[in-house]
Design a protein that fits this description.
Layout: H1 2-24, E1 26-30, E2 50-54, E3 57-59, E4 63-67, E5 74-79, E6 88-97, E7 106-112, E8 118-119, E9 123-124, E10 129-136, E11 149-156, E12 171-176, E13 187-194, E14 198-204, E15 212-217, E16 228-234, E17 241-254, H2 266-311
Antiparallel strand pairs: 1-17, 2-5, 3-4, 4-17, 5-16, 6-13, 6-17, 7-10, 7-16, 8-9, 10-11, 11-12, 13-14, 14-15
Protein name: L-type lectin-like domain-containing protein
Pfam family, one: Lectin_leg-like
GO molecular function, one term: D-mannose binding
Length: 312
């Protein structure tokens, strides 16, 4: 048992180390098709890359307001074209605020197969297929959980979101974010996705430039190949302003390590680069197995010593 737990911890540490090494080489290219900033609208009072509907209103010098601080409102904002990048990062500045001491319901971010449909899940359709990130500001029934609560749900197109339990039964990952609503600094979320490698959600609401990790997983869900980026919000008897300030979308890729050119043909340069990459890979593998071997030997010696002590 001790050996298994130690190996599990070692594996997680090795994964984190590898991811960190990859992150250092990650480069980005802005995705204009999925980014949005003031004044939001073109000269014909339309957005080239986004559609909006429901109770959404746009003030070109300040915000896209998905719901105003009034009861029974729903609004949405969805990209016109799907997000086709394999690896991406989306950073959103938003603001949830209002004049009431009791407020609700919350704001959602979507990467889903369908787009622009009003519904009961934070203003968008239920039984969705894809990924939903919910910033839930009103607590229905989650004992022991501090609200606002931020959670991810992976929809299969069949499973329904249960409002009565605040989605507890369908939660993929989540975190409490006390102070996010009505924060005095710009509030942001940053969602980073590498296909088959990891999914990470970070929040900024405590101080400018301080990113708080909400969740991170090395077993990310499968995002539909055709997925639209969207946002929605909803109010019920209680209400709030739910604003989108800006959206920055980036395509991520891993930069190949470069090496100094050596005299000779380009073929030699390519071989050097490939050799360096494979050499680094095998170095990681060797270190990993050496550490496992050391733990095993140490554990075996400890167990033998423990048995000898029991004889006496």
């Amino acid at each position: 048992m001790l050996l298994m737990s130690t190996l599990s911890a070692l594996w997680l540490a090795t994964f984190a180390w590898c991811v960190k090494g990859e992150e250092e080489n990650v480069k980005s290219i802005g995705l204009r098709t999925h980014s949005l900033a003031q004044p939001y609208l073109d000269s014909d009072m339309q957005s080239r890359w986004y559609d909006f509907g429901g109770d959404t209103i746009i003030r070109t010098d300040q915000y896209i307001r998905l719901t105003s601080d009034r009861p029974s409102q729903m609004g949405w904002l969805f990209s016109r074209v799907p997000l086709t990048a394999t690896n991406w990062e989306i950073e959103v500045e938003f603001k949830i605020h209002g004049k009431n001491t009791l407020y609700g319901d919350g704001l959602a971010m979507w990467l889903t197969k369908e787009r622009g449909k009003l519904g009961p899940v934070f203003g968008s359709a239920d039984r969705f297929e894809g990924l939903g990130i919910f910033i839930d500001t009103y607590k229905n029934n989650r004992p022991g959980v501090v609200f606002p609560y931020v959670m991810a749900m992976v929809g299969d197109g069949k499973t329904s979101y249960d409002k009565d339990t605040d989605g507890k039964n369908v939660e993929f990952a989540g975190c409490s974010a006390r102070g996010l609503r009505g924060a005095t600094i710009p509030t942001k979320l940053r969602l980073t996705y590498f296909q088959d490698k990891y999914l990470k959600l970070e929040l900024q609401y405590k101080s400018v430039g301080e990113w708080t990790l909400c969740f991170e997983t090395n077993q990310p869900p499968a995002i539909p190949q055709v997925a639209y980026l969207g946002f929605s919000a909803e109010t019920g008897e209680l209400s709030d302003n739910h604003d989108i300030i800006s959206i920055e979308a980036r395509n991520l890729y891993t930069a190949q390590p470069t090496s100094r050119p050596t005299p000779g043909s380009g073929r030699g340069k390519k071989a050097t680069k490939e050799g360096s990459s494979w050499g680094w890979f095998f170095t990681k593998i060797m270190i990993f197995f050496l550490v496992i071997g050391g733990i095993y030997v140490g554990f075996t010696a400890w167990r033998a010593s423990n048995r000898r002590s029991h004889r006496f």
